[in-house]
Amino acid sequence: GKVLVTGANGYVAVWVVKFYLERGFSVRGTVRSESKAKYLRQLFQSYGDKFEIVIVNDITKEGAFDGAVKGVDVIAHTASPFHDRADDPNEIIVPAVQGTLSVLNSALKHGGQSVKRVVITASCASIFEFGTTPRVFSEKDWNERAIREVSEKGKAAVNGDKYCASKTLAERAAWDFWKMHKSEVAWDVAVMNPPYVYGPVLHEVDKPENLNESLTLWWNAVVAGKLSNEELVTFGFGWVDVRDLATAHVLATTTPEAGGERVIISAGTYKFQDFVNVAHRLYPKLPSGNTSYDPVKAVHLISFDASKEHKLFGIKYHTMEEMTKDTLEDFIKRGWIS
Ligand code: NDP
């Protein structure tokens, strides 16, 4: 089979491409410009014509993916802005929502009988809501709060809420589109909802300052020692290794029952000090952080129920130790830690 992977140069996407290729799929990746294609062509050179790139310079334009979807069996839509630099929330909401709709529209009009499944890289951002007592969230939950915050406050909303609103609105748009058109198409939709994604880098990054959003947080906490002792033991969320999320995309493609499901892909909860503890044990010159931390006493207000994933896919998640070790080895290999 052949998979179209949108935003193929991203942190998550390059692992997704790699795992599809390793499992025998052909991959057509989209990137925004030729300059972003070169590195990928080189990285996946050994796959010959099983890997190709097409340029889609504006994913929000209607018909943007008309050419790209032709002849593919599966679409994995990962392209979506993830950063906290947006002033106007529409800077990230428009590409998230319109990008998703333009992929689905092209699949509707030009996917013919070939497209069987659309896998969407969504997020736990569209599931959880902030609260004051510990709560376990499942696929039944939707982040209505972020949408409300952004519609009430606009530019003044906190940046995290702008991103959460973009992912919630994009995922909702995908389900609404599919409900509206499912009788006309040969495909269904499977949505992957990961919390923070960490783990080694495979995409093109020249220096740590240019890491993607999630790894920047991890780098700042674990390597650069930029969090205060208080922040190290209170800042946290759910997490998953990028390689397990990539595996989930492949399993979402090959598991018929994943159709029509949103699926939380989460290894568990963390406080940044958990990663710092592992890192400092492996490399004593890295910061020790807050040495009074007791993980047993840590309060996780937000956690995610991954039981649907266990039933559907049964992923064996990388542990904190494995992820931290592999990530640090990668950073060392790049000369970022000496
Ligand atoms: P990256 O920033 O590494 O990759 C984002 C990808 O989306 C890039 O290919 C980027 O292209 C593309 N993109 C961003 N904005 C636009 C836009 N306006 N128009 C077209 N393309 C755009 O992020 P990740 O790999 O971390 O994220 C990938 C997906 O995973 C996203 O959907 C994100 O929401 C989701 N996710 C990520 C999590 C994480 O912790 N990393 C957690 C949960 C979900 P370009 O390089 O040209 O900008």
Automatic annotation (TrEMBL):
<keyword id="KW-0560">Oxidoreductase</keyword>
<dbReference type="InterPro" id="IPR036291">
    <property type="entry name" value="NAD(P)-bd_dom_sf"/>
</dbReference>
<protein>
    <submittedName>
        <fullName>NAD(P)-binding protein</fullName>
    </submittedName>
</protein>
<feature type="domain" description="NAD-dependent epimerase/dehydratase">
    <location>
        <begin position="3"/>
        <end position="264"/>
    </location>
</feature>
<dbReference type="Pfam" id="PF01370">
    <property type="entry name" value="Epimerase"/>
</dbReference>
<dbReference type="InterPro" id="IPR050425">
    <property type="entry name" value="NAD(P)_dehydrat-like"/>
</dbReference>
<dbReference type="GO" id="GO:0016616">
    <property type="term" value="F:oxidoreductase activity, acting on the CH-OH group of donors, NAD or NADP as acceptor"/>
</dbReference>
<comment type="similarity">
    <text>Belongs to the NAD(P)-dependent epimerase/dehydratase family. Dihydroflavonol-4-reductase subfamily.</text>
</comment>
<dbReference type="InterPro" id="IPR001509">
    <property type="entry name" value="Epimerase_deHydtase"/>
</dbReference>
